[in-house]
Amino acid sequence: MGKGYFITGTDTNIGKTFVTSHLVAAMQQIRVDAIPYKPIQSGVVKKNNRLVGEDVAFYKEYLDLKEDFSYYNTYTLETPVSPHLASKLENITMNEEVILERYKELEEQHEIIFVEGAGGVAVPLKEDFDTIDLMKELKLPVIIVTTLKLGTLNHTLLTTEYLKSHQIEIKGLVINKVPSRLNVMEKDNVMMIKKMTGLDVVGLIPEYKQPEDFTKISNLQFQNMIMTEKLI
Fold first, then answer.
1. Is 126 a catalytic residue?
2. What is this structure's pTM?
């Protein structure tokens, strides 16, 4: 049996897919059989004359993944809005039991599964079922993706406190989009994020100019970015 982590973020477009890919790549570099899993995807791109989830398309393009797109995703919604609304507009009924069964299958076949959520912790997946409810069902420790931008202290603390109030285990934080040189505010935010949340920072991901830069990272750089020993 493998183990898993749930990847969430403090905001939309915070870089969960990028961070999830980094986590998988860092594990693969040390020959750990790790894969990404996106249970619910809102928003698609066209690949080989078919519509696939845009996050899964990123996984497939930049990671060493052999299976078809559908292997890494259960529900694909075309409309790029909150899943509860997209599923309503597209007349698709989502069943959390299907997601749980799929996760169990993946857990039996791989060493580590990084489950990427849709949006943040309170995003509604159905009318009466939110991301926090899926986290409870999966019973996985959570990794929070955040940044150093203005407002991050408020967003990060609210996210961590919401998770704690629901007795969700938090493994740590990954700070994404880190500039090559930190200004005074960014340096202070690193210190304050740790102090206010009391959590470990398990990864620091640099700010990239192009997504393609992901492929230029060396094995050593991956390991320096992600504290893999805390996750294995």
1. no
2. 0.94
